[in-house]
């Protein structure tokens, strides 16, 4: 029978049928960060459970650390205790930790793929909703809360109900100036912030096959903003070439065995999905959010919507509150809205290709005088690679601050925040109320769009900059 | 986990779509505050005005709803971040049940780990409960009976709700999930032995 990629990973990972539609699912890899990871390791110790398989667990500090140049784990005093706790518990339990300044450290979902920890066909969890990012490697990766994280650390398993299958096919070719970030924001705008609830999403089609691994990780990163705990792209030669030789990827004969397994995983022709959606990649324009949910998104040429046009009362209430929070007026074009801050970074868009895309717009240009602009590479490796290419110098010359790897302004849990009332174009994944700091106003966009906003000091169609 | 059998009280309406877990609890509160201290910070961005005073328009600040054990919400409640602190904050603020048309998947799962009951009802029903409650100036009580799987509205209408049996039983008995899985250690060891033979690469590459 024809089967999907998701079924081909899920089914063999079922350790036991628990009845009533529940399965005990084996988890092959666990990622920990300073916020949820330190707490989980502490609580599991208090509960008296040893770690079932510390060799399958990998940790790094990212959320509660400063991104200031020259930072240490003490720079943000509020997070120092968390990082210290993570270090201590990791050492006690044998969990591998990639610490500040060390090759491997970075945003946990940049670190995992980069180290070859995340492999096609494996199951992976982290106490972080953007764990779905890792599905870009062809893994089944999903975010969980603190209790479920403890459960996995203690047992290497998790009772789960099998989600439904949703496929989103992007056929055709992406237009110039349109990025993976725009692909997924377009889908969220079209299908809604809950379209994927209860589903594992597979992204497929010619425009997805054409993406680099970095692009696929970006695409999968926003699955949770569409409601789906997991998003995935079938691994192919692009994946295998990217993965080969990475630190924890199989080597030699093991690589060959893995490759033989991986080549059998893509969805079979004729396999059925609970929902199957189609997007023509040629229809996608650069996207920008206007409100406080990722579904509040427009093509950059669009007009800010009127709550009286909302499809239902709950959305009318949400749109009204969002416009008030964002200080925007219905009917006005979104382009031209003045911005104060620009942030390039986060587990969505902090990889080397993202930095190159932004740098391509910045070359020979300068950040507008009233704009504060930060670039925060996703990992120590990304930072070093970018510096080897001279991207740090280019960003600095154009007026950006070049900072240390971490979550930084995406999450504002590290002493770094966009000031109250300030408007920020951000390459991150959440425009929620207060996400980038109390009162901060966030507009989500691609790295190229963020760079364009930095240069012009306003929300700008990057395609016009490229033509200039 | 705390047991849950039922609850009665005024149901506080917060009928806005896509209330995310960042809005329920700000992340810096999770950096600096223990699990038990979060209740006072629940919905702080809605509850407080920029000058730090209470926002009189926010539903949980209104006298009739200050002690509501039930929250009525819009679709996709608890979307976004996986922070279980959202559940701890709601429970710390006295909420034991959220009724909404739909929930974020991770928040939904986290609720059952802590003894907070999320009930999915059609949007019109959630709205009607809100109208019945507000029509009585908050005096009307809503009752949740988990054993019977029924919500009784202020006007006495009985609305059945669906809940997964495993989750219902765990709530009623306050079961510890980890202890249950530990009883499967034999199955887990057998699975892992088979998998180490079949997928040696998945194990050996991280040794």
From TrEMBL, chain A:
A Pfam family matched in the record: Aconitase
Record's keyword terms, sorted: 4Fe-4S, Amino-acid biosynthesis, Branched-chain amino acid biosynthesis, Iron, Iron-sulfur, Leucine biosynthesis, Lyase, Metal-binding
Keyword Iron: yes
Domain Aconitase/3-isopropylmalate dehydratase large subunit alpha/beta/alpha positions: 7-457
Cofactor(s) needed for function: [4Fe-4S] cluster
Alphabetical list of InterPro entries matching this protein: 3-IsopropMal_deHydase_lsu, Acnase/IPM_dHydase_lsu_aba_1/3, Acoase/IPM_deHydtase_lsu_aba, Aconitase_4Fe-4S_BS, Aconitase_4Fe-4S_dom, IPM_dehydratase_rel_enz
Name recorded for this polypeptide: 3-isopropylmalate dehydratase
Source organism of the structure: Plastoroseomonas hellenica
Designated gene of the protein: leuC
From TrEMBL, chain B:
PANTHER family referenced in this protein's UniProt entry, alphabetically: 3-ISOPROPYLMALATE DEHYDRATASE SMALL SUBUNIT, 3-ISOPROPYLMALATE DEHYDRATASE SMALL SUBUNIT 2-RELATED-RELATED
Role of this protein: Catalyzes the isomerization between 2-isopropylmalate and 3-isopropylmalate, via the formation of 2-isopropylmaleate.
Record's subunit section: Heterodimer of LeuC and LeuD.
E.C. code: 4.2.1.33
Gene3D superfamilies assigned to the protein according to its UniProt record, in alphabetical order: Aconitase, domain 4
Keywords: Amino-acid biosynthesis, Branched-chain amino acid biosynthesis, Leucine biosynthesis, Lyase
NCBIfam families registered for this protein in UniProt: leuD, PRK01641.1
Pathway membership: Amino-acid biosynthesis; L-leucine biosynthesis; L-leucine from 3-methyl-2-oxobutanoate: step 2/4
InterPro entries membership: 3-IsopropMal_deHydase_ssu, Aconitase/3IPM_dehydase_swvl, AconitaseA/IPMdHydase_ssu_swvl, IPMI_Swivel, LeuD
Family stated for the protein in its record: Belongs to the LeuD family. LeuD type 1 subfamily.
Name of the protein in question: 3-isopropylmalate dehydratase small subunit
Residue ranges annotated for the Aconitase A/isopropylmalate dehydratase small subunit swivel domain, each copy included: 1-123
Reactions this protein catalyses: (2R,3S)-3-isopropylmalate = (2S)-2-isopropylmalate
Lineage summary: Bacteria, Pseudomonadati, Pseudomonadota, Alphaproteobacteria, Acetobacterales
Organism annotation: Plastoroseomonas hellenica
GO function terms (MF aspect): 3-isopropylmalate dehydratase activity
Transmembrane portions of the chain: none
């Amino acid at each position: 029978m024809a089967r999907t990629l998701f079924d081909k990973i899920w089914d063999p990972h079922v350790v036991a049928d628990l009845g009533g539609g529940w399965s005990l699912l084996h988890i092959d890899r666990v990622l920990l960060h300073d916020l949820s990871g330190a707490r989980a390791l502490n609580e599991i110790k208090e509960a008296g459970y040893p770690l079932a398989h510390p060799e399958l667990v990998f940790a790094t500090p990212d959320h509660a650390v400063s991104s200031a140049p020259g930072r240490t784990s003490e720079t943000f005093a509020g997070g120092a205790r968390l990082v210290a706790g993570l270090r201590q518990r990791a050492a006690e339990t044998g969990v591998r930790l990639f610490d500040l300044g060390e090759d491997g450290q970075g945003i946990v979902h940049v670190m995992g793929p980069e180290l070859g920890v995340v492999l096609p066909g494996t199951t992976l969890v982290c106490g972080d909703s953007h764990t779905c990012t890792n599905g870009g490697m062809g893994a089944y990766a999903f975010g969980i809360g603190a209790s479920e994280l403890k459960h996995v650390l203690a047992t290497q398993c998790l009772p789960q109900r099998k989600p439904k299958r949703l496929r989103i096919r992007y056929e055709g070719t992406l237009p110039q100036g349109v990025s993976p970030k725009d692909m997924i924001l377009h889908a969220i705008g079209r299908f809604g912030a809950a379209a994927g609830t209860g589903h594992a999403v597979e992204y497929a089609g010619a425009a997805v096959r054409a993406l680099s691994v970095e692009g696929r990780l970006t695409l999968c990163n926003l699955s949770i903003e569409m409601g789906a705990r997991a998003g995935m792209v079938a691994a192919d030669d692009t994946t295998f070439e990217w993965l080969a030789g990475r630190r924890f990827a199989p080597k030699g004969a093991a690589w060959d065995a893995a490759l033989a397994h991986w080549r059998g995983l893509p969805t079979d022709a004729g396999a059925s999905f609970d929902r199957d959606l189609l997007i023509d990649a040629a229809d996608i324009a650069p996207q920008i959010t206007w409100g406080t949910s990722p579904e509040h998104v427009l093509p950059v040429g669009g007009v800010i919507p009127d709550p009286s046009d909302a499809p239902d009362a709950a959305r009318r209430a949400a749109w009204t509150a969002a416009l008030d929070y964002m200080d925007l007026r219905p009917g006005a074009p979104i382009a031209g809205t003045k911005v104060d801050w620009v942030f390039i970074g986060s587990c969505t868009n902090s990889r080397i290709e993202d930095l190159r895309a932004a740098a391509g717009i910045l070359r020979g240009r300068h950040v507008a005088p009233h704009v504060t602009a930060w670039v925060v590479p996703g990992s120590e490796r990304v930072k070093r690679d970018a510096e080897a290419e001279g991207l740090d110098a280019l960003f600095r010359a154009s007026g950006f601050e070049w900072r240390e790897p971490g979550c930084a302004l995406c999450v504002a849990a590290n002493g770094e925040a966009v000031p109250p009332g300030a408007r920020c174009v951000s390459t991150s994944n959440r425009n929620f109320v207060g996400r980038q700091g109390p009162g901060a106003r966030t507009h989500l966009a691609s790295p190229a769009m963020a760079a364009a906003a930095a240069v012009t000091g306003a929300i700008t169609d990057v395609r016009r900059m490229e033509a200039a | 986990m705390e047991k849950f059998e039922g609850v009665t009280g005024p149901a506080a309406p917060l009928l806005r779509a896509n209330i995310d877990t960042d809005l329920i609890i700000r992340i810096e509160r999770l950096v600096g505050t223990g699990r038990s201290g979060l209740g006072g910070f629940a919905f702080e961005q809605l509850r407080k005005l920029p000058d730090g005073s209470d926002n009189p328009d926010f539903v949980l600040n209104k006298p009739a709803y200050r002690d509501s054990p039930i929250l009525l919400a819009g679709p996709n409640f608890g979307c976004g971040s996986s922070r279980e602190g959202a559940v701890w904050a709601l429970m710390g603020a006295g909420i034991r049940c959220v009724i909404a048309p739909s929930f974020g998947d991770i928040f939904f799962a986290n609720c059952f780990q802590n003894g907070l009951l999320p009930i999915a009802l059609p949007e019109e029903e959630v709205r009607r409960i809100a109208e019945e409650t507000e029509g009585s100036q908050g005096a009307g009580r809503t009752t949740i009976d988990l054993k019977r799987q029924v919500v009784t509205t202020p006007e006495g209408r009985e609305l059945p709700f669906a809940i997964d049996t495993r989750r219902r039983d765990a709530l009623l008995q306050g079961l510890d999930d980890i202890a249950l899985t530990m009883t499967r250690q034999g199955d887990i060891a057998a699975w892992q032995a088979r998998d180490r033979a079949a997928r040696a690469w998945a194990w050996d590459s991280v040794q």
